[in-house]
Specification:
The complex is a heterodimer of chains A (115) and B (113). Chain A has 115 residues and is mostly beta strands. Chain A has no helices and 10 strands. In chain A, strand 6 and strand 7 form a beta hairpin. With 113 residues, chain B is an all-beta fold. Chain B is globular, with a radius of gyration of 14 Å. The chains are: A mainly beta (115), B mainly beta (113).
Chain lengths: 115, 113
């Protein structure tokens, strides 16, 4: 498929465990974003990658959250010591270039439930 | 600070009628882009339409048009000839020559048969 893919689609974990969420952007897209969407809410920016530049981590809510992007392609969002308030849908998006005229293409999201 | 405001948490429209979803924004940056996304109940975010801050004409994409009033800092989405499949959440978003996209809180649209 040519779209953004995310895995897993659903993840249930116990409070205190670590989780890893994966995003495969559209091939050739240099920009990659992670967002969090709580139930019935808008999108909360988490982190942004552009090519080989240092990522913009300004949206990460705490130091339990981290992300990396290997080889300018696949990205992994890691949440350590998960809390119940981390329960949300985590959306990944990619875009062709880092200018405002290019729309983001979103993946289907990972629904994270922390029990 | 950048801010996007969608004041209509929920809207209803009769099938085949037109509907306007409101979006206002606040920025001092002269260069920005405005987007509308649709999120059906299945959860995926679907890009609908884009307007650049320097674009002279309102953007149109099929049944979607963006009523861009720069002086009022508004970017309302107009959906003409509503269809049942238009029922979804609609998000207004703004981007800059930088990294972040800013999203509004969304408007839930229900199309009534």
């Amino acid at each position: 498929g040519a779209g953004v893919s995310q895995s897993p689609s659903n993840k249930v974990t116990e409070k205190g465990k670590d989780v890893e969420l994966r995003c495969d952007p559209i091939s050739g897209h240099t920009a990659l974003y992670w967002y969090r969407q709580s139930l019935g809410q808008g999108l909360e920016f988490l982190i942004y990658f552009q090519g080989n530049s240092a990522p913009d981590k300004s949206g990460l809510p705490s130091d339990r959250f981290s992300a990396e992007r290997t080889g300018g392609s696949v990205s992994t969002l890691t949440i350590q010591r998960t809390q119940q308030e981390d329960s949300a849908v985590y959306l990944c998006a990619s875009s062709l270039v880092r200018i405002q005229g290019h729309e983001q293409y979103f993946g289907p999201g990972t629904r994270l439930t922390v029990t | 600070a950048q801010k996007i405001t969608q004041t209509q948490p929920g809207m209803f429209v009769q099938e085949k009628e037109a509907v306007t979803l409101d979006c206002t924004y606040d920025t001092s940056d002269p260069s920005y882009g405005l987007f509308w996304y649709k999120q059906p109940s299945s959860g995926e975010m679907i890009f609908l339409i884009y307007q650049g801050s320097y674009d002279q004409q309102n953007a149109t994409e099929g049944r979607y048009s963006l009523n861009f009033q720069k002086a009022r800092k508004s970017a309302n989405l107009v959906i003409s000839a509503s269809q049942l499949g238009d029922s979804a959440m609609y998000f207004c978003a703004m981007s800059f020559t930088g990294n972040q996209f800013y999203f509004g809180t969304g408007t839930s649209l229900t199309v009534i048969p």
